[in-house]
Amino acid sequence: MPDWTIIKILSWTESYFKEYSIDSPRLTAEILLSHCLGIKRLDLYLQHDRPLQKNELSIFKILIKRRIQNEPVAYITGKKGFFESDFEVEKGVLIPRPDTETIVEEALKILLSDPKNINPKTVLELGTGSGAIIVSLAKAAPGHSYFASDISDTALEIAKKNAEKIVKGKVRFLGSAWFSSLKKIPRFDLIVSNPPYIPSGDIQYLQPEIRKFEPLLALDGGSDGLDCFRSILYEAHHYLVPGGIVLFEMGFDQKNGIQGVFERYPQYGSIDFIRDLAGRDRVVLIKKTIDKNNNY
């Protein structure tokens, strides 16, 4: 039997993934094989005629089986690229998505508006997951104070690891259901969150990679997908400075629903919707009233 060289195993795996309708079959094969061999994807082609050892073939076979059972590539490799950094992920932690980079970009417009950090800001992320958002902000805009919370112990453990690796731990993490553990922390200039916003009834129709593997706690936004927006806006004004901002990621079709939630709270003075690169509503920016004489 001829040797299974890198190029031969890549071609075979690509065809096999196509049979199982795996998205991006060639790219997936490259990512899994480079992970298995501990080399960069480019090196797969620089070493294309290298034969795989028996143990390498055995390990790679296991990775292939996991993928055709719809396990996400990020869980198989234990990492996911997001906003110029690689983040550790595992089951129980939501996998960062490219769409979420939109909220990071909008937050950075606020944080970098004062390039000399004359007035450093205090930033909180609610439901941090892997820490992708808050750590990306701390890396790109140092000099501010960063806090993040999550109700999941698994998520907090992973987020702390990512913060230590990428920004040397310059984020303070708290176990909290939204604001429940934040009573003694000063008020914030900016609160960011990518909350669960998928309507409960829609979860059964999600891709199996999401529905079967990613944490329901990070997906289910209640019957209309807006429960978490209601919960956060109900309390956020108590934790914001006058003129402070809340940035949410949102579903592309939730603009009217979120507008309705916003209108219930006179504590907030304005709302804006920001589109992602595909032209879909993706981020909502809500600003607290700047009336310092109110009781909000």
TrEMBL record:
Substrate binds at N194, P195, P196, Y197. GO terms for biological process: methylation. Residues 9-78 form the Release factor glutamine methyltransferase N-terminal domain. It catalyses: L-glutaminyl-[peptide chain release factor] + S-adenosyl-L-methionine = N(5)-methyl-L-glutaminyl-[peptide chain release factor] + S-adenosyl-L-homocysteine + H(+). SUPFAM superfamilies: S-adenosyl-L-methionine-dependent methyltransferases. Residues 105-198 form the Methyltransferase small domain. PROSITE patterns: N6_MTASE (PS00092). S-adenosyl-L-methionine binds at G127, T128, G129, S130, G131, D150, W178, N194. GO terms for molecular function: nucleic acid binding; peptide chain release factor N(5)-glutamine methyltransferase activity. Transmembrane segments: none annotated. Keywords: Methyltransferase, S-adenosyl-L-methionine, Transferase. It is an enzyme of class 2 (transferase). Its EC number is 2.1.1.297. Belongs to the protein N5-glutamine methyltransferase family. PrmC subfamily. Methylates the class 1 translation termination release factors RF1/PrfA and RF2/PrfB on the glutamine residue of the universally conserved GGQ motif. This is Release factor glutamine methyltransferase. It comes from Desulfobacula phenolica. The gene is prmC.
